[in-house]
Amino acid sequence: MFQMLKKVSCVVMTLFITAFLLGVHQPVCAQEKKPIIQEPLPYSQNALEPFISSYTLGFHYGKHHAAYVDKANELLEKSPLAKQPVEEIIKATAGKADQTILFNNVAQAWNHSFFWKCLKAQGGGKPGEKLAKLIDENFGSFDKFKEEFINAGKAQFGSGWVWLVSDGGKLKIVKTPNADNPIVNNQKPLFVVDVWEHSYYLDYQNRRPDYIKAILEHLANWEFVTSNL
Ligand code: MN3
């Protein structure tokens, strides 16, 4: 009898350990999953140097972006929108006076996550054939596009973002203030540069155009931009 009990408890223990190792405990983790996730940076914190310093990226990703994600998740705990995809939460809260804080934090979480993917080490310069052709068709030449993009960033008064979007198949440069995002206007974001001061001030001080130029010439991930077409 004792031997049998020993055998049974051994089998139960083995099953328990196997289940644990196989990840049967996963549903508990899944329940804790937050509506907004801050994905890891797609490169190391110093990968974009010397154009964006590790110091700037550490603050920008680790403090600014993280704060938007945390605040968005905190606000979504009490919101029926929590289970919606992030883009739907942005559209549902845009322009609604009683949802401004939620919109700002969710949109800023999305905008930053998109911005990181628009950058890479040894990027920038003229894009590949497909995107280069579209840029030529819509802006005349890559140099004209670059000039127009930098000027839009310069002209954005205060905080905001400069985007390359597809608007019904036509490529356009648009600037948005604060957390605003072109998906609210049914435009498809292809590329973005964050022009909030926190994104460049430690490295460029007031020279915002130099920061945008450095991104276009050295960091833009045109493969990612092309994949958004
Ligand atoms: Mn930012």
Keywords:
229 residues, mainly alpha, Helix Hairpins, minor pseudopilin epsh fold, 2 domains, three-stranded antiparallel sheet, 10% strand, globular, binds manganese (III) ion
Structure, explained:
This protein has helices at residues 2-22, 26-31, 54-76, 86-93, 100-117, 129-139, 142-155, 201-204, 208-219, 222-227; strands at 160-167, 170-177, 188-194. The chain is mostly helical and 229 residues long. It folds into 2 domains: 54-117, Fe,Mn superoxide dismutase (SOD) domain (Helix Hairpins, Orthogonal Bundle), CATH 1.10.287.990; 129-227, Iron/manganese superoxide dismutase, C-terminal domain (minor pseudopilin epsh fold, 3-Layer(bab) Sandwich). It has a 3-stranded antiparallel β-sheet, with helices on both faces. A hairpin with a 2-residue loop joins strand 1 (160-167) and strand 2 (170-177). The chain starts with a helix and ends with a helix. Manganese (III) ion binds at residues 60, 64, 112, 194, 196, 198-199. Manganese (III) ion binds next to helix 3.
What is the strand and helix layout of this fold?
Elements: H1 2-22, H2 26-31, H3 54-76, H4 86-93, H5 100-117, H6 129-139, H7 142-155, E1 160-167, E2 170-177, E3 188-194, H8 201-204, H9 208-219, H10 222-227
Antiparallel strand pairs: 1-2, 1-3
The appropriate CATH architecture of the largest domain is 3-Layer(bab) Sandwich
Report the CATH C-level class of the largest domain: Alpha Beta
Number of domains: 2
Largest sheet: 3 strands, antiparallel
- What proportion strand? 5-15%
